[in-house]
Amino acid sequence: MAQFKAGVLTAKGLALLAKWQLGSTTPTITRAVIGSGSYGESESLVNRTALKSQKLSVAISTKYIQNASTVLLKSIFDNTTLSTGFKVTEIGIYAIDPDDGEILYSMAVSEDESVADYLPAYNGTYPSTIVFNYQVEVSNAETVTIQAGSGAYAPADDFNDLKEHTAELTIQAAANSLAIAQLVTAILQDERKIAEMRDAHDALVAAVFSTETGTTTMTNTKDYPFNDSKKTVAITNTRQTLFYDVEVEVTAYSGGLPGNVIVSDKQLNGFKIEFDGSAKSVTVAYKIKEGMTV
Protein backbone atom coordinates (compact mmCIF):
# COMPACT_ATOMS: atom_id res chain seq x y z
CA MET A 1 0.00 0.00 0.00
CA ALA A 2 1.20 3.50 -0.84
CA GLN A 3 2.47 5.66 2.01
CA PHE A 4 0.57 8.59 3.52
CA LYS A 5 2.03 11.54 5.39
CA ALA A 6 1.29 11.86 9.09
CA GLY A 7 -2.28 12.80 9.85
CA VAL A 8 -3.06 16.42 10.73
CA LEU A 9 -5.76 17.78 13.01
CA THR A 10 -7.78 20.45 11.23
CA ALA A 11 -8.53 23.77 12.91
CA LYS A 12 -12.00 22.53 13.81
CA GLY A 13 -10.42 19.27 14.95
CA LEU A 14 -8.04 21.12 17.28
CA ALA A 15 -10.97 23.08 18.73
CA LEU A 16 -12.92 19.84 19.26
CA LEU A 17 -9.92 18.15 20.92
CA ALA A 18 -9.77 21.05 23.38
CA LYS A 19 -13.45 20.48 24.24
CA TRP A 20 -12.77 16.76 24.76
CA GLN A 21 -9.82 17.55 27.03
CA LEU A 22 -12.02 19.88 29.10
CA GLY A 23 -14.52 17.05 29.48
CA SER A 24 -17.41 19.05 28.07
CA THR A 25 -18.27 16.33 25.54
CA THR A 26 -17.49 12.66 24.86
CA PRO A 27 -15.42 11.85 21.73
CA THR A 28 -17.67 10.49 18.97
CA ILE A 29 -16.11 9.38 15.65
CA THR A 30 -18.64 9.11 12.83
CA ARG A 31 -16.96 7.98 9.60
CA ALA A 32 -13.92 7.85 7.32
CA VAL A 33 -13.69 9.28 3.80
CA ILE A 34 -11.23 8.92 0.92
CA GLY A 35 -10.75 10.97 -2.23
CA SER A 36 -8.52 11.82 -5.16
CA GLY A 37 -7.60 15.46 -4.42
CA SER A 38 -4.12 16.69 -5.29
CA TYR A 39 -1.96 18.64 -2.82
CA GLY A 40 1.22 20.63 -3.07
CA GLU A 41 4.36 19.53 -1.23
CA SER A 42 4.00 22.17 1.50
CA GLU A 43 0.27 22.78 1.31
CA SER A 44 -1.33 23.20 4.76
CA LEU A 45 -4.25 20.96 5.72
CA VAL A 46 -5.15 22.75 8.95
CA ASN A 47 -7.91 24.94 7.52
CA ARG A 48 -9.56 22.28 5.42
CA THR A 49 -13.18 21.43 6.25
CA ALA A 50 -13.55 18.64 3.64
CA LEU A 51 -11.46 16.61 1.22
CA LYS A 52 -10.74 18.26 -2.09
CA SER A 53 -12.36 15.45 -4.07
CA GLN A 54 -14.20 13.00 -1.84
CA LYS A 55 -15.15 9.74 -3.54
CA LEU A 56 -16.24 7.33 -0.79
CA SER A 57 -17.50 7.49 2.80
CA VAL A 58 -17.79 4.52 5.20
CA ALA A 59 -18.37 3.89 8.87
CA ILE A 60 -15.47 2.92 11.12
CA SER A 61 -15.13 -0.87 11.22
CA THR A 62 -13.02 -1.27 14.34
CA LYS A 63 -11.47 0.84 17.10
CA TYR A 64 -8.22 -0.20 18.80
CA ILE A 65 -6.96 1.67 21.88
CA GLN A 66 -3.26 2.44 21.40
CA ASN A 67 -2.68 4.33 24.64
CA ALA A 68 -4.55 6.67 27.01
CA SER A 69 -4.99 9.38 24.36
CA THR A 70 -4.67 7.59 20.99
CA VAL A 71 -6.92 5.22 19.07
CA LEU A 72 -6.33 3.32 15.83
CA LEU A 73 -9.34 3.33 13.52
CA LYS A 74 -9.78 0.65 10.84
CA SER A 75 -11.99 1.42 7.81
CA ILE A 76 -12.76 -0.73 4.75
CA PHE A 77 -13.67 0.89 1.43
CA ASP A 78 -15.00 -1.06 -1.56
CA ASN A 79 -15.70 -0.08 -5.16
CA THR A 80 -19.25 -1.44 -5.51
CA THR A 81 -20.61 2.11 -6.02
CA LEU A 82 -17.81 3.29 -8.30
CA SER A 83 -18.37 3.76 -12.01
CA THR A 84 -14.96 5.40 -12.43
CA GLY A 85 -11.76 4.36 -10.68
CA PHE A 86 -9.45 6.81 -8.89
CA LYS A 87 -6.11 7.12 -7.11
CA VAL A 88 -6.55 7.34 -3.35
CA THR A 89 -4.56 10.42 -2.39
CA GLU A 90 -6.44 11.77 0.63
CA ILE A 91 -8.22 10.34 3.66
CA GLY A 92 -10.21 12.06 6.38
CA ILE A 93 -11.88 11.27 9.70
CA TYR A 94 -15.11 12.94 10.78
CA ALA A 95 -16.33 13.50 14.34
CA ILE A 96 -19.20 15.21 16.17
CA ASP A 97 -18.68 18.71 17.58
CA PRO A 98 -21.40 19.61 20.13
CA ASP A 99 -21.56 23.14 18.70
CA ASP A 100 -20.79 22.71 14.97
CA GLY A 101 -22.18 19.22 14.31
CA GLU A 102 -20.16 16.82 12.17
CA ILE A 103 -16.72 18.20 11.26
CA LEU A 104 -13.61 17.01 9.47
CA TYR A 105 -11.49 16.18 12.51
CA SER A 106 -8.29 14.92 10.92
CA MET A 107 -6.89 14.17 7.46
CA ALA A 108 -3.82 12.87 5.71
CA VAL A 109 -2.56 13.00 2.14
CA SER A 110 -0.43 10.69 -0.02
CA GLU A 111 3.36 10.83 0.39
CA ASP A 112 3.75 10.47 -3.39
CA GLU A 113 0.63 10.83 -5.52
CA SER A 114 2.31 9.15 -8.47
CA VAL A 115 2.37 5.81 -6.67
CA ALA A 116 -0.92 6.19 -4.80
CA ASP A 117 -3.18 3.13 -4.58
CA TYR A 118 -5.74 2.86 -7.36
CA LEU A 119 -9.29 1.75 -6.62
CA PRO A 120 -10.83 0.57 -9.91
CA ALA A 121 -14.42 0.87 -11.03
CA TYR A 122 -16.68 -2.04 -10.09
CA ASN A 123 -16.78 -4.69 -12.82
CA GLY A 124 -20.07 -6.13 -11.64
CA THR A 125 -18.50 -9.39 -10.48
CA TYR A 126 -15.69 -9.06 -7.97
CA PRO A 127 -15.53 -6.00 -5.71
CA SER A 128 -12.16 -4.53 -4.75
CA THR A 129 -11.45 -3.24 -1.26
CA ILE A 130 -8.89 -1.01 0.45
CA VAL A 131 -8.31 -1.15 4.20
CA PHE A 132 -7.03 1.95 6.01
CA ASN A 133 -5.65 2.10 9.55
CA TYR A 134 -5.75 5.68 10.82
CA GLN A 135 -4.33 6.78 14.16
CA VAL A 136 -5.97 9.80 15.82
CA GLU A 137 -5.40 11.71 19.04
CA VAL A 138 -8.29 12.00 21.50
CA SER A 139 -8.62 13.14 25.11
CA ASN A 140 -9.44 9.72 26.60
CA ALA A 141 -9.18 6.65 24.40
CA GLU A 142 -11.40 4.58 26.72
CA THR A 143 -14.37 6.93 26.16
CA VAL A 144 -14.25 7.18 22.37
CA THR A 145 -17.56 6.24 20.78
CA ILE A 146 -17.77 4.94 17.21
CA GLN A 147 -21.10 5.97 15.75
CA ALA A 148 -23.07 2.85 14.80
CA GLY A 149 -25.81 2.03 12.36
CA SER A 150 -24.11 2.81 9.05
CA GLY A 151 -23.17 -0.66 7.83
CA ALA A 152 -19.41 -0.85 8.33
CA TYR A 153 -17.54 -3.96 7.29
CA ALA A 154 -16.05 -6.26 9.91
CA PRO A 155 -12.37 -6.94 9.05
CA ALA A 156 -11.52 -10.59 8.39
CA ASP A 157 -9.22 -10.89 11.44
CA ASP A 158 -11.90 -9.38 13.68
CA PHE A 159 -14.47 -11.72 12.18
CA ASN A 160 -12.25 -14.74 12.83
CA ASP A 161 -11.70 -13.62 16.42
CA LEU A 162 -15.44 -13.27 16.79
CA LYS A 163 -16.01 -16.77 15.40
CA GLU A 164 -13.50 -18.24 17.85
CA HIS A 165 -15.03 -16.34 20.76
CA THR A 166 -18.52 -17.45 19.70
CA ALA A 167 -17.35 -21.07 19.57
CA GLU A 168 -15.89 -20.76 23.06
CA LEU A 169 -19.13 -19.25 24.33
CA THR A 170 -21.11 -22.05 22.68
CA ILE A 171 -19.00 -24.72 24.41
CA GLN A 172 -19.29 -22.90 27.72
CA ALA A 173 -23.05 -22.55 27.30
CA ALA A 174 -23.36 -26.29 26.62
CA ALA A 175 -21.32 -27.08 29.74
CA ASN A 176 -23.46 -24.70 31.77
CA SER A 177 -26.65 -26.28 30.41
CA LEU A 178 -25.41 -29.75 31.39
CA ALA A 179 -24.50 -28.55 34.87
CA ILE A 180 -27.91 -26.94 35.29
CA ALA A 181 -29.65 -30.12 34.12
CA GLN A 182 -27.67 -32.20 36.60
CA LEU A 183 -28.49 -29.76 39.37
CA VAL A 184 -32.21 -29.84 38.55
CA THR A 185 -32.14 -33.64 38.51
CA ALA A 186 -30.46 -33.74 41.93
CA ILE A 187 -33.02 -31.31 43.33
CA LEU A 188 -35.92 -33.38 42.00
CA GLN A 189 -34.40 -36.57 43.40
CA ASP A 190 -34.04 -35.00 46.82
CA GLU A 191 -37.49 -33.42 46.81
CA ARG A 192 -39.05 -36.28 48.80
CA LYS A 193 -36.24 -36.21 51.36
CA ILE A 194 -36.64 -32.47 51.75
CA ALA A 195 -40.39 -32.87 52.28
CA GLU A 196 -39.81 -35.59 54.89
CA MET A 197 -37.27 -33.43 56.71
CA ARG A 198 -39.70 -30.50 56.66
CA ASP A 199 -42.48 -32.66 58.14
CA ALA A 200 -40.14 -33.93 60.86
CA HIS A 201 -39.06 -30.39 61.65
CA ASP A 202 -42.66 -29.21 61.88
CA ALA A 203 -43.48 -32.08 64.25
CA LEU A 204 -40.46 -31.23 66.39
CA VAL A 205 -41.44 -27.58 66.61
CA ALA A 206 -45.03 -28.48 67.43
CA ALA A 207 -43.89 -30.80 70.21
CA VAL A 208 -41.27 -28.52 71.74
CA PHE A 209 -43.32 -25.38 71.51
CA SER A 210 -46.74 -26.95 72.17
CA THR A 211 -49.06 -24.34 73.69
CA GLU A 212 -52.20 -24.58 75.77
CA THR A 213 -54.59 -21.72 76.44
CA GLY A 214 -57.44 -21.15 78.82
CA THR A 215 -59.14 -18.73 81.25
CA THR A 216 -59.66 -18.80 84.98
CA THR A 217 -61.32 -16.56 87.55
CA MET A 218 -59.84 -15.92 91.00
CA THR A 219 -61.92 -14.64 93.94
CA ASN A 220 -60.78 -12.80 97.08
CA THR A 221 -62.88 -12.73 100.32
CA LYS A 222 -60.39 -10.70 102.30
CA ASP A 223 -60.10 -6.95 102.73
CA TYR A 224 -56.98 -5.29 101.33
CA PRO A 225 -54.09 -5.74 101.99
CA PHE A 226 -55.04 -9.33 102.77
CA ASN A 227 -55.82 -11.69 99.89
CA ASP A 228 -56.90 -15.32 99.57
CA SER A 229 -57.22 -15.53 95.78
CA LYS A 230 -54.60 -18.25 95.19
CA LYS A 231 -55.93 -21.24 93.28
CA THR A 232 -54.68 -24.19 91.26
CA VAL A 233 -55.00 -24.36 87.47
CA ALA A 234 -54.81 -27.84 85.95
CA ILE A 235 -52.86 -28.41 82.72
CA THR A 236 -54.73 -30.53 80.20
CA ASN A 237 -51.66 -31.44 78.10
CA THR A 238 -49.26 -32.54 80.84
CA ARG A 239 -45.80 -31.03 80.49
CA GLN A 240 -42.70 -33.22 80.34
CA THR A 241 -40.42 -30.70 82.12
CA LEU A 242 -40.95 -27.83 84.54
CA PHE A 243 -39.23 -25.47 82.15
CA TYR A 244 -42.44 -24.03 80.75
CA ASP A 245 -43.76 -20.47 80.69
CA VAL A 246 -47.20 -19.21 81.66
CA GLU A 247 -48.27 -15.94 80.11
CA VAL A 248 -51.30 -14.21 81.69
CA GLU A 249 -53.48 -11.28 80.71
CA VAL A 250 -56.22 -9.74 82.88
CA THR A 251 -59.48 -9.72 80.96
CA ALA A 252 -61.90 -8.62 83.73
CA TYR A 253 -61.95 -7.58 87.39
CA SER A 254 -64.37 -6.13 89.96
CA GLY A 255 -64.48 -4.80 93.55
CA GLY A 256 -61.13 -3.03 93.31
CA LEU A 257 -57.87 -3.23 91.35
CA PRO A 258 -56.25 -6.54 90.41
CA GLY A 259 -52.67 -5.54 91.19
CA ASN A 260 -50.08 -8.13 90.07
CA VAL A 261 -50.98 -11.62 88.84
CA ILE A 262 -48.52 -14.18 90.21
CA VAL A 263 -47.82 -17.70 88.88
CA SER A 264 -46.09 -20.10 91.32
CA ASP A 265 -45.65 -23.74 92.33
CA LYS A 266 -45.36 -25.06 88.76
CA GLN A 267 -45.94 -28.78 88.44
CA LEU A 268 -46.09 -31.03 85.35
CA ASN A 269 -49.89 -31.12 85.55
CA GLY A 270 -50.70 -27.68 86.92
CA PHE A 271 -49.64 -24.46 88.65
CA LYS A 272 -50.81 -21.93 91.26
CA ILE A 273 -52.09 -18.48 90.34
CA GLU A 274 -53.17 -15.48 92.42
CA PHE A 275 -53.42 -11.68 92.39
CA ASP A 276 -52.29 -9.24 95.10
CA GLY A 277 -54.62 -6.30 94.53
CA SER A 278 -57.81 -5.14 96.29
CA ALA A 279 -60.24 -6.62 93.75
CA LYS A 280 -62.76 -9.25 94.80
CA SER A 281 -62.74 -11.04 91.45
CA VAL A 282 -60.15 -11.19 88.64
CA THR A 283 -60.42 -13.16 85.39
CA VAL A 284 -57.31 -13.86 83.33
CA ALA A 285 -56.51 -15.55 80.02
CA TYR A 286 -53.40 -17.72 80.21
CA LYS A 287 -51.10 -19.38 77.67
CA ILE A 288 -48.76 -22.24 78.57
CA LYS A 289 -45.68 -22.55 76.30
CA GLU A 290 -42.87 -25.14 75.97
CA GLY A 291 -41.99 -27.68 78.64
CA MET A 292 -42.16 -30.55 76.14
CA THR A 293 -39.42 -32.90 74.81
CA VAL A 294 -39.24 -35.21 71.83
Largest sheet: 6 strands, mixed
Structural class: alpha+beta
- Count of all domains: 2
Radius of gyration, taken over Cα atoms and rounded to an integer in Å: 45 Å
What is the helix fraction of residues, given as a range? 10-25%
Could you list the spans in which at least 5 consecutive residues all have pLDDT below 50? none
What share of the residues does DSSP label as strand, in percent? 35-45%
Give the ordered list of helices and strands.
EHEEEEEEEEEEHEEEEEE
Q: Please tell me the overall pLDDT.
A: 86
Briefly say what this structure is:
With 294 residues, the chain is of the alpha+beta class.
Question: What key attributes describe this structure?
Answer:
six-stranded mixed beta sheet, three-stranded antiparallel beta sheet, 22% helix, alpha+beta, 2 domains, 294 residues, Immunoglobulin-like
Secondary structure: elements and pairs:
Elements: E1 8-9, H1 11-22, E2 28-35, E3 54-58, E4 62-67, E5 70-78, E6 86-87, E7 90-97, E8 101-109, E9 118-119, E10 129-137, E11 145-146, H2 156-208, E12 211-219, E13 231-234, E14 244-254, E15 261-267, E16 270-275, E17 281-290
Parallel strand pairs: 2-11
Antiparallel strand pairs: 1-8, 2-3, 2-7, 4-5, 5-10, 6-9, 7-8, 12-17, 13-16, 14-17, 15-16
